[in-house]
Amino acid sequence: MDNKNISKRIFKDRIFTVCVTFLAFIACLPLLGILFLIIKNGASSINLGFFIHLPKPVGEEGGGIANAIVGTFIVVGIAFLIATPISLLTGIFLSENRKSRFSEMVRVSIDILSGIPSIVIGIIAYLWVVKPMKGFSALSGGIALAMIMLPVVIKSAEETLKLIPYSLREASFALGVPYYRTVLKVILPTGFSGIITGVLIAVARIAGETAPLLFTAFGNPFMNFNITKPVNALPLLVFNYATSPYEQWHKIAWGAAFILIIIVFVVNILARMISKKWKVTF
């Protein structure tokens, strides 16, 4: 009788394991399908000229997406420079003042901001930045992406810093170390890996955002390094070329999507490597 019960339990465990494994595989299918289509249609467009040349007019063969690649790094870099210090300081404040009423208000505001659709963020950036500046620009695009990046990095920084034992702070205070030096020399270095991981994940997310850039960066067929002027970006190029009626532009859109996926993939892998290498356990 006992052997039968054990056999039934083993059988049920195996069935459960098979079901869970199958469902996990089903969850991965959309990603695998997307990667297959992008690699199949986009890899053939990749060559050296694709990275260093500007787009050519309709009807001409060749051309590249150098302006979109540079523009992507410009707007993402602006967003990074704006969002990272603000998010880090906010995360420190929330982790150090966990029960204050103002902290709760800030958390609610961050949760609401994280739930706002990116196209609404784009409209807000258009009203707040583009109209006062009287023109589209890389700066307005970076500000829009920074607004999307903020809640992700703030949450990551807060949760990481919450994991740091209070005993480390007490030990620092017992040695007579001022509060600001405790934050800079004890708290931040201890939570470095978690904070950097959150920043990189946020960067990977905003790198593929299209809607905010439609209202801010707008796009530019030429190379531009001036942040007060319109710039192109990979998501914008993919959208504009994929919705065009030209077959040649469709091929370029697939190639740009392939490069964008590679960038996002590399950033995510880098985030995981940093998280594993510098992870601090307590």
From TrEMBL:
Localization per Swiss-Prot or TrEMBL: Cell membrane
Name of the gene encoding the protein in the UniProt record: pstA
Protein name: Phosphate transport system permease protein PstA
ABC transmembrane type-1 domain boundaries: 69-271
CDD domains per record: TM_PBP2
A Pfam short name: BPD_transp_1
Natural source organism: candidate division TA06 bacterium ADurb.Bin131
GO biological process, one term: phosphate ion transmembrane transport
Topology within the bilayer: Multi-pass membrane protein
GO function terms (MF aspect): phosphate transmembrane transporter activity
Keyword Nucleotide-binding (UniProt): no
Record SUPFAM superfamilies: MetI-like
Entry keyword annotation includes Transcription regulation: no
Residues spanning the membrane: 15-39, 65-94, 106-129, 135-154, 186-207, 252-271
This protein's GO CC annotations: plasma membrane
Keywords: Cell membrane, Membrane, Phosphate transport, Transmembrane, Transmembrane helix, Transport
Protein family (similarity comment): Belongs to the binding-protein-dependent transport system permease family. CysTW subfamily.
